[in-house]
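Entry:
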Amino acid sequence: MSEIVIIASCSQQKKRTEGKCVMMHTIKATTGEGRLNAWTKLVQSSDWETPADEMYLGQYWSVIREIIIALGQKGARHQLLIASAGLGLLSHDDKIPNYAATFQSGATDDICSPLTLPLKRRGIVRNWWKQINQNLSAKKRLTFLNQAITSETRTVVCLLSSLYLEALKGEIQSIQKLRPDIQFLIFTTDKDPARRNLKGWIPIESDLLQKLGGSRVSLSARMALEYLRSKRSTASITTSDCRSFFQKRCQQHGSKITFDRKPATDDQAKKFIIKEIENGATSYSPTLRAFRDAGFACEMKRFRGLFKEVTNHA
C-alpha cells in the first residue's frame, strides 16, 4: 500500500502539561554554539512525557488533525512528522517535554540571539537544525528525514513556514534526487527563498482565504485538506494535479481581499522589514506592497528610508 507523509511545523501555542516548561528565553548565551549547548542540556534534563501530536494547539494544528482524520477515513497509510525548532524532527508519537522555542524572528523564545543579523538567520537555522537533531537523537525516533521514507512512500506533503522549510531543504533535495518517484506537495509562497531548487512547489493562493476560511497562518494546511479530501485515492496525487486543482479553484472562487489599513509606527515597519528580508526580500518596493497587503499604512518615502536603515545595519 502506498504511503503519504505529512510534515507540519510546530506551533508556539502548546498544551499545558504537568511539570516544568523549558524556555529558550532563559538561555543567556549569545553565540550560536553557546545557545545550542545550553538548550541541549536544558531539554535533555526535562521530562519527555507528552506525545508530540498532542502538544500543539491553535488553528493551524486543528487543520493538521483534520488532515490526519481525512486520510484515516480513506484508509490511507500515512505518517505525521513535526518540524520543531526546539527538538528537531519529530515523529507524531515521540514523547516530548513542555518547551518553548521557535525560529520566528523577534519572538520571546527565538533560538537566535537578539544580536543576530537578519541576513545570517537562515544559515544559523540550518546549522541549528542539523546539530539539535544529532544532540537529541537518543531521545526520539528520527534524526534525519530520510529515516521516515520507506519503499511504500509515494507522496510527501510539506506544510512548513519559510524558516522551517529552510531547515529541511537540504534533506528534501537529497530525497528528491534519490527517489524521483515520490510526489512532493510543498505549499509555500512564490517569494519564499526556501523553495528555490525544490521540486513540487504548490503556490499558496491568498485569494482562496474567503473560500476556505480561517487565517493566513492556516491557509496552506486548509489547501492541503481540501485537495486531499477531493481525491478518492491517494495513489492519484501528483504535483501537477494539485497545481491544476487550485488554479481551477482560484478561477471559480478566488476574490481579492481588501483591508482597512492602519497607520504603522517605525518600530512596526522595521520589524516587518526584517522579517521580509529573512524571507528573501531585496528591495523596498515589493516589501512595501506586502506591508500594505498586511493591512498597514505607510508613506512610500518614509518606508524606503526605514528599509535603507534596516539594510545598512544588516
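Residues 3-253 form one domain.
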